[in-house]
Design brief:
This protein has one domain. α2 packs across α3. The longest helix is centred in the middle third of the chain and has 30 residues. The chain has about 90 residues and is mainly alpha-helical. The N terminus is likely disordered. It has four helices and no strands.
């Protein structure tokens, strides 16, 4: 009988002597790096989708976005403007 994939995965990277897991173990730093890559991918994907909306609907899409931004509370609007500037 074959071991389940979860069992095989949970024992991967542990030596026969029972030492601590090897480098296959995710450290907090490696997890943070992976999450940053995921966030970057999601932002790029969403930017592409928003660009497609603007390409399709033109000024109507931009007007809708501008109205939504104008309705935000001032603190949230400033935070979004800072993100848009990359600071």
């Amino acid at each position: 009988m074959r071991a389940s994939s979860s069992t095989a995965h949970s024992t991967r990277g542990i030596s026969d002597e029972g030492d601590a897991p090897t480098s296959a173990t995710l450290t907090d730093e490696r997890i943070a790096i992976r999450l940053a890559h995921v966030d970057e991918h999601i932002r790029a994907e969403k930017a592409h989708e928003l660009g497609a909306l603007v390409d399709t609907f033109g000024d109507a899409a931009l007007i809708h976005f501008a109205k939504q931004v104008a309705e935000l509370d001032p603190a949230r609007r400033k935070a979004i403007q800072r993100l848009a500037r990359g600071s």
